[in-house]
């Protein structure tokens, strides 16, 4: 009846047990441990990220973990969080603390609040342990062009972005991440995850991964096909490795799940290796233990590649990780319990459900050459994780059906570029599917759909159906755009600031927000606007503040993009100390006189308006943070305060050893008072905390030359208008 609650899901599935016991994937004598682990809740795992990773790790170990080690709740000693032995530099930790225990101790409540705040500000990510493995095996470097084929919800994508920014002194790495997902709604979840990292090198797109468009770039006036150095192919799967956290899988699991997904997984993997550069690395992964979704896909891919792909031995890449080698023989079972060891045994009536690629190769020599034992299967009971499968592939030569360069879509190069050859194995269904999408992928767009002079329109409807929200245009500014004149003068921007990389999301009326992307992403966007549906890209660097116009510049600095922008700013910088930061972030109305002598003198020389509050670490002071900090601020008539979102304030204060958890209401009231008295447009502080993920007007990106003359209506969405 009503109020009785939900019936508890029984963690039993006889079909699951029968199937995996027969396959013998679990070592002999470990079955009971395996099933026992599958029924236990999954430990919470966190990963420390971003510019201040070392400082956060120091704070966790010395402020929280030490105290938790000595803590007792209800007479029981609390198990302190432990680092994942195989994750580099102790930047990933797991804990068995649950919500009941967290509520019983003030210290644990404080620890939980710290994790929540750091997660909101993007400095800590909650991510399942095994999910961290694929990005590590990709071995990413800052110059790599990366494609994440099935990216949502975005925890692995965030990891890829972090690795791209491994050198924090480079604001614009040469590489980039294109994160794709077929589900339009999940793309916005992906944007939310990636936005926390404030990178100018990430672009979120919305496509079916199995027919991912082939993109092109321009270099020295010549068009080239874009091939990726690294591809993450984390395909949709039955998810039986996630039973510890997704308990609904216990009830829904059948062998049909894998049979239905195998074809899609293979098509996505084929599309991935087609777009991989020679010498590039692709990681194929699933959160399923089933060989039909794992080794069967890899074996089929290797067989079709005819030696163009190599399955790499990654056993030494993550020392400390326990895993089982891939299997070389397996069987299929229907949901009715019927077993098949070979394609020849499958009755005609099941040929649409069961395909030849689902079985192991029958040629012993071919099977030996594949080295399927190099695949890695992680079992839950070995290191208290979820179940997972991962394989690392390196491309040594073009795929047999891509032996010649694809035809470029540029008419000028049409005659010089040869067309793809026909797939060698077109008889098989999976290969047919892969081959059928190639002609559309490479043919020239219809003339009516392509705008001239570099202004790109939506792709033809027959080639790519658009679902979900239509996006605002991405309008790149020209170097001589009038908007740069006051900005250049006010902030004394360096001459090498890449103005061409600045974009806005409207080409009519006032530009309210300015974003910046890397040069390489700009190249991709302007050369492929008719081919890709871009959901989001760029990091916000300036926001319009009309009150600031009277002080010399109508644009204030945005905290999201300050680390990207700061290397180019040469004016309006105030050097602050640790004590200054504490004053700026904790006091309701910090008067300039309360700052240290150096900061005070610098602030008094500046007119009203946006400023950068810069902290330089002192190597002699071991107790102070040893990393630089840049905060956006506002110099008022008599006061100066940090223009930083609430969760970022808590982050910086935690790094300084200050614990401060104010009530939201009080903080909002005090901030409003300061803003009114210091001459800042109140709508700006609200916009600062408004997520810039919105359903806009049109799906296009613009070149600066044509953008000014276009008349597409793309004003602010209603939600932002209401705030203003």
From TrEMBL:
It catalyses: cytidine(49) in tRNA + S-adenosyl-L-methionine = 5-methylcytidine(49) in tRNA + S-adenosyl-L-homocysteine + H(+); cytidine(50) in tRNA + S-adenosyl-L-methionine = 5-methylcytidine(50) in tRNA + S-adenosyl-L-homocysteine + H(+); cytidine(34) in tRNA precursor + S-adenosyl-L-methionine = 5-methylcytidine(34) in tRNA precursor + S-adenosyl-L-homocysteine + H(+); cytidine(48) in tRNA + S-adenosyl-L-methionine = 5-methylcytidine(48) in tRNA + S-adenosyl-L-homocysteine + H(+). S-adenosyl-L-methionine binds at residues 150-156, 181, 208, 234. Residues 429-441, 666-676, 683-697 have a biased composition (Basic and acidic residues). Its main location: nucleus. One of its GO terms (molecular function) is methyltransferase activity. Keywords: Methyltransferase, Nucleus, RNA-binding, S-adenosyl-L-methionine, Transferase, tRNA processing, tRNA-binding. It is found in: Nucleus; Secreted, Extracellular exosome. InterPro entries: MeTrfase_RsmB-F_NOP2_cat, MeTrfase_RsmB-F_NOP2_dom, Pre-PUA_NSUN2, PUA_NSUN2, RCMT, RCMT_NCL1, SAM-dependent_MTases_sf. Residues 34-396 form the SAM-dependent MTase RsmB/NOP-type domain. GO terms for biological process: methylation. Its EC number is 2.1.1.203. This is tRNA (cytosine(34)-C(5))-methyltransferase. It comes from Polypterus senegalus (Senegal bichir).
